[in-house]
Write a structure and sequence with these properties.
Helix content: 55-70%
Number of strands: 10
Number of helices: 18
Largest sheet: 6 strands, mixed
Number of domains: 2
Order of helices and strands: HHHHHHHHHEEEHEEHEHHHHEHEEEHH
Distance between the termini: 69 Å
Oligomer: single chain
CATH architecture of the largest domain: Up-down Bundle
CATH superfamily of the largest domain: ABC transporter type 1, transmembrane domain
Strand order of the largest sheet: 6-7-8-3-9-10
Mean pLDDT: 76
Shape: elongated
Length: about 650
């Protein structure tokens, strides 16, 4: 009977090739994996494939010979017990014939198993190498794709593409070369045996049965695929929602949204459950139809053989043989249904992976791109124009320079284009017009690897790998020694904290670094960049997650780090950039002001307005803190806090405190 694929994995819809005929899609997938199964640079794997095919052929020859041994044993038993069948008389002189034929039957069964398992074990090296190489190629390509590609897709969906693609490669390589081809060979051998031992009637019945069986299996499987597509969509949707919710665990807790998240997840699971029931119901119909078709052919062949035995045209051994041959044929026939389903599923999975592989990298190195040669690290934006969407320009003719060894800060209201500048400098996106240079070299003319190696980034929102503190620090420079790691951590004011942990630098930081506080994560990011020691620094509000005391310490450390380095600071807290050599003020993608802090304050423009607003907000916070402290002292004297400063006393609809 047919069984579901390993793990019950459903057939996935082909999202990337909806307009292609199925045959073209199949050929595309097979062409895509062929170089990995028959690698031109691995003659050892080619030899393994050939040896596996030879073992397969031997196994099938032995398999088809088993019914002969069964026939010989039966005829020998008839002869030894005084049977009157003419064809068995030749065995009468050999007293040990029944035992010998039975032993031969057992030997062929053992030989079949040994050859088949040897073939499976040997070919596993080829199949798993193909899985590894193609998955690695896809993983590398995913990293080469643009930031836009990743922002427009869900991480959970991409990991599923990778996972399903790996499974698809393994299924196709193993099912095609280790099951499909051997089964075709076995069909041919069985038909040849039937023609030799019996006559054309048996061959015709078996051929008709095989054709009808395969037609029914393919038709039913196609019907089931349509059912399973809904199941696949809900499976992917449930998986993506689960990952998204767990990654945002703290946010869920903030808003007490556990029930809401469970309801969203369950909505996908309900669809998955209903589709799964239909899938397994359709599987029952498929198994029933296959069994009926095969049993009718088996019964017809045995009836014909029984009549031939009665007529003296066949021996009793041949009656047993035709039954054994048909039952032997049922095993690969049963596999053919699963093979078709697995190959169909694998092709779909691989096509989706191929769609990712064929996705062009929006940002790619030019042919012959050279390494970036950093002499001083001067950064220049020359009439840069940029947009994420053509109808919504972000930067319009922006020009500025960050001289070598100087610090330039970029400020402006939200949406002014500050973060876009950092993405352009790191070449996550290419500009729509103008150019960006480092020491006079257009960053589009150099390799991305050398460009990013020259720039150190401390982002506002630090996300760490789910590994040790040491691993996250060494990400800045993998070959750094322990002494260098500790020195960088000390400069970032986090070494003392790490040494208080039971496992020290080998402490796991958790998913996205959630075991560390925001300030601790920020200091790890700073230490990581210090360890990298790049000639150009980019600080995206590097002290935003720190308290005032720690901010002062880190700012002092950063002042040492940025000394004699070209530094671009994207600032939200203006108090952190008052000592910058130049401050650029952006508004709606255009440079509206620039100068030192003092010059901009004297000018009384946008920068001065932003500064005054921040100072007023800080003053209000200070006054509120002082008021709360004063009220705290009054509580100690037996007084109650006034309702105006008690958040718990607020009622829905009141303005926030």
């Amino acid at each position: 009977m047919q069984r579901e694929a390993s793990g019950g994995r459903p057939q996935r819809p082909n999202r990337g090739a909806g307009s292609r005929p199925a045959e073209r899609g199949s050929l595309r997938a097979l062409r895509g994996i062929f170089p990995y199964v028959w690698p031109h640079d691995r003659p050892d794997l080619k030899r393994t494939v050939l040896i596996s095919l030879a073992l397969m052929l031997c196994a099938k020859l032995v398999t088809v010979s088993m019914p002969f041994t069964y026939k010989w044993a039966t005829d020998a038993l008839v002869a030894a017990t005084g049977g009157q069948q003419p064809a068995s008389i030749a065995w009468n002189w050999l007293i040990g014939a029944p035992v010998a034929a039975t032993l031969l039957y057992g030997t062929t069964r053992i030989a079949m198993v040994v050859l088949s398992q040897a073939r499976e074990g040997l070919f596993a090296k080829v199949a798993m190498n193909a899985v590894r190489q193609l998955a690695l190629t896809t993983f590398k390509h995913m990293h080469e794709l643009s930031l836009r590609f990743h922002l427009e897709r869900k991480t959970g969906g991409l990991t599923r593409v990778l996972e399903r693609g790996r499974n698809g490669i393994e299924n196709i390589t193993r099912m095609t070369l280790m099951t499909f081809i051997p089964t075709i060979v076995e069909f041919g051998l069985v038909l040849g045996v039937l023609a030799y031992e019996f006559d054309w009637r048996y061959v015709l019945i078996v051929m008709a049965m095989i054709g009808l069986y395969l037609w029914f299996t393919i038709s039913a499987t196609e019907w089931r695929i349509r059912i399973r597509r809904t199941m696949n969509e809900s499976d992917s949707d449930a998986n993506t929602k689960a990952i998204d919710s767990l990654l945002n665990y703290e946010t869920v807790k903030y808003f007490g949204a556990e029930a809401r998240e469970a309801a969203r997840y369950d909505a996908s699971l309900v669809t998955y459950e209903r589709a799964s029931v239909r899938t397994y119901t359709s599987l029952a119909w498929l198994n029933t139809g296959q069994a009926v078709i095969f049993t009718l052919a088996l019964t017809l062949c045995m009836v014909m053989s029984a009549r031939d035995v009665i007529a003296g045209a066949n021996t009793l051994g041949q009656f047993i043989m035709v039954n054994a041959l048909m039952l032997q044929l049922f095993i690969p026939l049963n596999f053919m249904g699963m093979v078709y389903r697995e190959i169909k599923q694998g092709i779909t999975d691989i096509e989706i992976m191929m769609d990712v592989l064929e996705q062009p990298a929006e940002v790619a190195d030019k042919p012959g791109a050279r390494e970036l040669a950093v002499r001083g690290g001067a950064v220049r934006f020359e009439n840069v124009r940029f947009h994420y969407e053509p109808e919504r320009p972000i930067l319009e003719g922006l020009s500025f320079e960050v001289p070598a060894g100087k610090m330039v800060a970029i400020v402006g209201p939200s949406g002014a284009g500050k973060s876009t500048i950092s993405r352009i400098l790191l070449r996550f996106y290419d500009v729509a017009g103008g150019r960006v240079t480092i020491d006079g070299q257009d960053i589009r003319d150099v390799t991305q690897t050398s460009l990013r190696a020259a720039i150190g980034v401390v982002p506002q929102d630090t996300v760490l790998f789910n590994d040790t503190i040491r691993y996250n620090l060494q990400y800045g420079r993998p070959d750094a020694s322990q002494a260098e790691i500790e020195a960088a951590a000390g400069l970032a004011q986090i070494d003392a904290f790490i040494k208080t942990l039971p496992e020290g630098y080998d402490t796991m930081v958790g998913e996205r670094g959630l075991k560390l506080s925001g300030g601790e994560k920020q200091r790890v990011a700073i230490a990581r960049t210090i360890l990298k020691a790049p000639p150009i620094l980019m600080l995206d509000e590097a002290t935003s997650a720190l308290d005032s005391h720690t901010e002062k310490e880190i700012q002092d450390a950063l002042d040492k780090v940025v000394k004699d380095r070209t530094t671009l600071v994207i600032a939200h807290r203006l108090s952190t950039i008052v000592h910058a050599d130049n401050i650029l003020v952006l508004d709606k993608g255009q440079l509206v002001e620039q100068g030192t802090h003092g010059e901009l304050m004297q000018r009384g423009g946008l920068y001065a307005s932003l500064w005054n607003r921040q100072r007023q907000a800080e003053k209000a916070r200070e006054e509120l803190a002082a008021a709360l402290a004063q009220e705290g002292e009054r509580i100690g004297d037996g007084h109650l806090l006034p309702e105006s400063v008690l958040p718990s006393a607020k009622v829905p609809g009141d303005p926030a405190v």
